[in-house]
Amino acid sequence: MDMTVVELSRWQFAATAMYHFIFVPLTLGLSFLMAIMESVYVMTGREIWRKATLFWGTLFGVNFAMGVATGIVMEFQFGMNWSYYSHYVGDVFGAPLAIEGLMAFFLEASFIGLFFFGWDRLSKVGHLVVTWLVALGTNLSALWILIANGWMQNPVGSKFNPDTMRMEVTDFVAVLFNSVAQAKFVHTVSAGYVCGAVFIFAISAFYLARGKHVEIAKRSMVVAASFGLAASLSVVVLGDESGYVATEHQKMKIAAIEASFHTEPAPAPWTVLAFPGSDGEPIWQIQLPWLGGLITTRSLEEELEGIHPLVDRAEERIRSGMIAYEALQAIRADAADQSARATFDQHWADLGYGLLLKRYREDVGNATDTEIAMAAEDTVPDVWPLFWTFRIMMGLGFFFIAFFAFWFWKASTGKLETNKNLLWLSFFLLPTPWIAIEAGWFIAEFGRQPWVVEGVLPTFYAASGLNFWDLVISLTFFTLLYTVLFVIMIWLMVRIVKAGPKDHVFHEPQDEDDFVVAALPVTPMTKELGA
The pTM is what? Predict the structure, then answer.
């Protein structure tokens, strides 16, 4: 496989996936905050909470539509750019994706229609149930996606079948309750809740600083501060759990994140800052004693394995994978060869490591010691991008705790609008949750390299056999299309925010063109749409 083609395929998937992930966390956060606000409306009967729910729901609707459009395109790439991946692991990976589409996405999409069009057709309690089902649907959607992704990080409940040349499910319950998937799910949705809380708080602070829509802004800030404080605390706690699980199943990723080239004896320190030398290893660093062991192993008695020892272990697994590969070739030549099957069963778990040699030669069984050593070095992801990205993400995580704790205190003392400078600062912090979230996604996916499925399938081996210009054209097209969509989305969001919460008018559509406008807030933009 031409490595340029592989890199372009990776760039294209990364661009579409990380662009799609702009919308996912906001959908998760806004859906729950909408449900909370409507719950207050149903309990108190105060119209202002209905108006707040409708306003944030309109922004949610724009975000949801963009998320659907970009998510569908992203999934098509499994067949376009990663066809061998789809063939090799489709029996395992395809099941959670199919369930997500059938159970979660349709649930979410169906009830979103009822949310917008059902205000005057459902009772208060009935509509509240619909709103909570929208929130449930968004979380179920994330659950099944992260079960699929968690399996890529820790491929449990499956085995390679030499007769079909594919990974197949052996224990679907193990796939569902994969510890990596569960840790990723709770951490990811909590990050989405923080994103939604910051979004609502920042826009409400904007209104309050300008003295507009004050009553809705204050109430929204109180809800966002309370919900955001709980969510930001849970993000840090659940992020620690996610890191601990990764230490068990992805030791190389953790070693790279910590820039730990040599095994740290217990109790391992935690590196706060470090800078690399010419050989890539740290030449200067600030460390906190014991903390690394507590974070990664939750113990003061376990050592933290370094990159170099893990490379040595990878070399051993590559040699075992060579045996598995040779046995597989014997099975393909003679399916009745029981000796080859016994050998394969003994070494099949290392087959993926043997496939790493495909980057250097076709006949894996004849690989030289030099080629084996190079393949073992390939198991090390780029250390310093991971090192710094992790610290950016973690720093923002603790910042959100302090941010929401401060504003929760201000809300509790009735002093939300006493300092306009702080309100404007809160507004300009609007992009920060996306920085943290995209950093986390980068760590999860980039840190897994060179694997598309950890220890099972190398990334370069999973790509489709496209040519260079196919990928240049498609990557350029997607980049331009997504840029246009992003500009349109920002324009819509800005128009809605500028118009602010308005009285909402719901009526029976008079004609086909009036159908969409009937459930939107009365703003200059919707008047234009109606015209």
Answer: 0.89
